[in-house]
């Protein structure tokens, strides 16, 4: 899952990038609200973590501009101002969830996953495509109710595809979500991993289809 972190406190941002990166998230960080729309134009994000007290352009103004631009990216607001009025006004302005500082990492991760599921029309604590199911809490795939054994990279590619099932994902988008710190990884690596996954899935009623010019899509047969 690719997350945009908008936070001006560098120690907190550095910690979140590292901590979330160890738990299946790829995090891009900006420290100025004026950079948000540019980032969203350049990259497709699964969710945004937004601090309200930002330089350049405050979090409230960022929210207003996002919704004026009809951006549908789910937004989780982080703020030290934990008052009822602040929570209510922020939600009315277009935030999808609210978390006060200080917070526990586990709660932040759980809220992000819930936001992303809801944004894709899924209220259950699992991602699924036909008989293929991914339990985000257990970080486990099952096919036809049987555990699916995958290498770490196969797991990462399939996780990205099931989180966007029915939507085409280009090789570059997959690379950006999986190997952001490995500059030498080439798109051909995705082709190899997809080939392996197709062999893993051939016994079930789910497949990875190539859409010419668009990328790969996971779909039920």
UniProtKB/TrEMBL annotation:
Residues with PTM 4-aspartylphosphate: 51
Q: Which CDD domains match?
A: trans_reg_C (cd00383)
Question: Is the keyword Phosphoprotein in the record?
Answer: yes
Pfam families to which the protein is assigned, alphabetical: Response_reg, Trans_reg_C
Alphabetized GO MF terms: phosphorelay response regulator activity; transcription cis-regulatory region binding
Binding region for DNA = 124-220
Kindly provide the name given to this protein in its UniProt entry. Answer: DNA-binding response regulator
Q: What is the lineage of its organism?
A: Bacteria, Pseudomonadati, Pseudomonadota, Betaproteobacteria, Burkholderiales
